[in-house]
Amino acid sequence: MNSVNSANPLLISVVVPIYREERNVRPLTERLAHVFARLGCSWELIFALDPSPDRTHDEILRLFDEQYPIRVITFSRRIGKPLSLIAGLDHVQGNACVIIDADLQDPPELIEEMVRKWEEGFEVVIAGRVSRKGENFLYLKAAQTFYWLLDKMSDVQVPKNTGDFRLLDVRVVEQIRRFRERHGFLRGMTAAAGFRTTVIPYDRDPRLSGRTQISFRGALNIALDGIVPFSRVPVRAVFVVGVSLLAIGLVSACVWLIAGLLNGFSKNEPITFLCILITFLSGIVVSSLGILGEYLVRTYEETRERPLYIVDRIEESPSLHRKLPDPIEPTA
Q1: How far apart are CA 323 and CA 317, in angstroms?
Q2: Strands 197-204, 42-49: parallel, antiparallel or unpaired by DSSP?
Q3: Which of 95, 181, 235, 278 is the most buried (most CB within 10 A)?
Q4: Other CB atoms closer than 10 Å to residue 3's CB: what's the count?
């Protein structure tokens, strides 16, 4: 069972990556406040804010005057959800951390059960989606395909039908902070970190308001972030395909040569065969280069050692239970 001594009272951190969610900030904060009031423990809410063209930042600042324990981290430019999550984890102060989106598709009330599981000794408590309301059919099928591929290819075991909604013990947070990956995939990093894990099933609600900020391109990037850093299968598949094609080519050439010697060569057969073979091999070569290029580009990005993110400013409400050291340096 997780325990906290009296000199360091229990504090739960909540990390919310946020962008263009001005209408959801208040409802989320109010529901979180009710949850922690029932739990009877201290909490802090960390908004990892990508600079938004709407009034999301202003709405957060309005909550400061209402005694909500909020820390808002604003970045110098938009960095996307994966890095926003990493930045949020870098700035938590709690004994455990809950990660949740601002759109209220993931019910904050589930945090009560997460905390109970954490108190039982589980260091990672993940919310597993039984149903997903308000999401279109094609997106759901794409998600199912992604999890199937991830299950078959990944070197680590990522629970199916789960998102970033989870509770992490401080020990897990400390280990994830060591994964300084530019294309951080939280689900994969959590699995790679290990620790005792359980999954809580739940029904996912429709968005409270607005529309999702993840585009098709963004979803594709997240899918690649989940497969490429945690799997050697694509590169090995290129090798296997290459060897297989070499074998098929040699066998086909021998068969064609023997058949031609026995039955005679047609004028058109060699040209037809050559055109089909060139087209097929060209597709394989280009696809293979794309796979290898994905790994190469990501390796290059990591070796440049640029900072994962740059913080423009950090603002803390007066009611925060634990303050960050002042000043805090941007994390490399």
Answers
A1: 10
A2: unpaired
A3: 95
A4: 7
Per-residue pLDDT tens digits for 213-229: 455 455 555 555 545 45
Give per-residue pLDDT as tens, 113-170: 999 999 999 999 988 877 656 555 565 565 556 555 555 555 556 667 777 889 999 9
d(CA 257, CA 103): 65
Instruction: Supply the pTM of this predicted model.
Output: 0.66
